[in-house]
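Exercise 3.2. Students should predict the tertiary structure of the chain below and write it as structure tokens, then compare their answer with the key that follows.

Predict this chain's 3D structure.
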Amino acid sequence: MQRMAMVIGIRPEHIPAYKRLHAEVWPDILAQISACHIRNYSIYLKEPENLLFGYWEYHGTDFDADAERMAADPRTQEWWEICMPMQAPLETRREGEWWAMMEEVFHHD
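Answer key:
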């Protein structure tokens, strides 16, 4: 299992809609997340900085392949078309990233 985390900004005017959307995530999206070996997935909001922090545990053997599988899913693409305009990617993210991936520097079970 690999713990993974990411961060992105959110446009403040979209926070209420983003919360509503994630309170009722489409079943197809949840199924795709599970099919791509992602478990214990959470998103947190930090205001007033307007940052979203995402955390999950990856239980597969090839994250890049599972990420490509998720990105190719038409229903996931629909979901992202709704979510992405609400988000504000960090200028410091790596090339090719939307959400900026984070390095784990501490863990304790």
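Discussion points: The two ends are 13 Å apart (CA to CA). The beta strands are 2-10, 38-46, 51-58, 87-88, 100-102.
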